[in-house]
């Protein structure tokens, strides 16, 4: 089994058809109009099973709160469920919003996940609240939580590695399950810990990931204009570590493939209207294609939608692969994480299937 702390080993040793880099999936457990959270989580489970069968490398779920259209408020719980329904797909958080949680709790949760699915768990960490300011206050109980992100990351890694120095106040506190169990009398030595990734949509986490020598995942799907500057900053500031000897950057991109260009455009507009509502402070369920077509957009809203769709890769499968290849070429990304956050189970599954087929990913 590869060292779980070295995310590049299993990736670079994995065939990925004619895709320029490994392909993965970011799932938001989307709650569509006409459905509910039960449907959403069942769809996420089906997406994970299918992604494994179609040859995707990993699937991550994201932490969001107080958003009716997203059912992934508890990534660790959802990852445990997905691990029970898959065999080899890597699973992780994209991400856990660390300032919302005590580092020890996160270390214990993901140590448990690693014990349940050894070598298949990733721990992606974000600095944003994953919600609005009022909900963030209810979660964090402190206005300064995000300002301590660097220290919280260091504390979490200390718990994950069981590696605090002798004079540290937490030296005798252990995250269990975790590495300490490999050293106690009678231990088997099989206990590992998941790799830590830093996530970002600006330069802050890019620079921190570079300084710590960690893999970095950038949210191109909602911060496209910052992608290249953030990746350049990450690579310039990268310091080799025990985890990585060279930078490893993954970007998340919105992509929608369908059997016709018209169907892909209609699906992509549902994602655009949903984001318009989030940015306007009125998040709702994922709208239907009909709702997205008939919505009375103001000129400013229509402009937002057009700008949003300009950063989505959509169309028939060959158009999507061409667009994704161009994105990889422009950014130099080492891995691509596709998110298809649109209305309807069938549209999401069909999109991932078409992309996998076009890239000839190694399937079961």
From TrEMBL:
One of its GO terms (cellular component) is cytosol. One of its GO terms (molecular function) is oxidoreductase activity, acting on paired donors, with incorporation or reduction of molecular oxygen. Residues 27-326 form the Luciferase-like domain. It comes from the Bacteria. NCBIfam families: oxido_grp_1. To bacterial alkanal monooxygenase alpha and beta chains. This is Luciferase family oxidoreductase group 1. It comes from Stackebrandtia albiflava.
